[in-house]
Amino acid sequence: MTTSEEVGMAMIRTMFALLAMFIMLAVSVLPAYGAGDGSGTGAAVTSEAELVTAPVEIDGQVLFRVRGTSSFPAVQRAAAIVNRIEGAASDTTIRSDMLRLTDEDKVTTIFAGEQLLMIVTDGDARLEHLSRDFLAKTHLTRIRQAIDDFRRARSREALLQGCLYAGGATVALAVVIVLIIMLGRRLDSLVTERVESRIHSLGIQSFEIVRAERMRGALHSMLFALRVAAILIVSFFYLHFVLALFPWTRGLASRLLGLITSPLARMGKALVAKIPDLIVLVVLYFVFRFVLRLLRLFFDAIEHERVKLAGFDAEWAHPTYRIVRFMVVAFGLIVAYPYIPGSESAAFKGVSLFIGVVFSLGSSSMVSNIIAGYMMTYRRAFRIGDRVKIGDVMGDVTKMRLQVTHLRTVKNEEVSIPNSQILGGNVVNYSALAHEHGLILHTTVGIGYETSWRQVEAMLLMAAERTPGLLREPQPFVMQKELGDFAITYEINVYCDNPHEMNTLYTELHRQILDVFNEYGVQIMTPAYESDAAEPKVVPPEKWYEPPARKTE
Length: 553
Hints:
Blueprint: H1 3-38, H2 40-49, E1 53-58, E2 61-67, H3 74-90, E3 99-104, E4 107-112, E5 115-121, H4 122-128, H5 132-153, H6 156-194, E6 202-204, E7 207-210, H7 212-243, H8 250-273, H9 275-303, H10 317-336, H11 346-362, H12 364-379, E8 387-390, E9 393-400, E10 404-409, E11 414-418, H13 419-424, E12 427-429, H14 434-437, E13 439-447, H15 453-466, E14 477-483, E15 488-496, H16 502-519
Antiparallel strand pairs: 1-2, 3-4, 4-5, 6-7, 8-9, 8-12, 9-10, 10-11, 13-15, 14-15
Helix pairs in contact: 3-5, 6-7, 7-8, 9-10, 15-16
């Protein structure tokens, strides 16, 4: 068999398979279709129960409800019936006793004279579970009464009576509002005389938690809110009464209470439906609050060294507690999120996503500084009170926050340095080893070659000995840093245990060096000079031990 014949056979087999599938599908659908025909009554009942109805309302009073069809919805049908009834009621030539019924095939028509008002069908009767004739007669009675009420409410006597009642209600409202205001002011003054003298600031020792002025202000605000609430309630009843006096606003009066109670009812139903979730949230709140209290007590014990952990410093307790607290709170929010009312709504998720995106875009530097702050805590680079040098800034550490570290310079300037910058640079801590091993202060001088190095070192050590505030042990020492072109560079190294007095000690050391060198007539060559003297700059042996230098064996 050739390739073209194989392709043809494959196409034929595919066509037969599709045909067989179509036949099987038709056989399976036909019984269901036949069963649907046999159960038409049940389907009709179900569809009847699911139909949407609309009220036929005249001057705020619902006469009856009607159903609609796909081509003529219930709302449009009800509006059309209302327009016809109001048109007939406005026509004084049509009396209410002129309403009549006309029974035709499967429908009953209600006429006002020769004017069509509405049609009652068998579907309307099935919806009300009544016969079509009885339902039509009931609708006729309700329409006749509505027409009489419509004309009576718009009569001159009724409108005049409504205006009189409205005027009286307005005067009564004004009187009641004045009384409420006067009573409120009287109550306010009474509270001022009787209660305010007994109100004192709420505080702990000298710290005021709630000031007395705030408490008095809150009390007066509460009384003012009560007056406003009373005026609003009275105004609501006045508005409801006045609107109900006139036919054009009577419908609004009947719906006025619903405008307030409907949202409250929906909120109440939603709250009742969410009571199990709220109970879960309350339980989770107290559980996680108890856990956080235990953590706080545990880390407080570590901080005050009542509990000691191997390899864990006491100063790490507070930052570690904050990290653990954040993790516990985050875990609690994750657990509680499904039980928060409205968390499943698209609006709640959209707002949460928006906040997350804004926080992630705007907090990159903040997060890096926070992480750097915690890393510095565990690295123990410095502590509060240490004298440090960060970059070009030298000062004492006054505050260590999550994002910045505050330094107070020797000029009494406060400098805030981001923690990420500190983590990425070098930190010189003058206080870390000062109390145990001593901090070495050093300064250099340049002395000419004609002066014996022994004499220079002796004079530098003498200047160190005369400087108050330096440690005697370990002993100072001198180093020759450089044999320069014009002078020898000497470095005097001294010890101190108070790095906060560095500048003062340096100043005093420099003073003593100047005094000692002037006392023994030795010229300091720093900076260098440009011309040389006529005599060579050498030290003869007999001057190697010029005072205060001493020969040692």
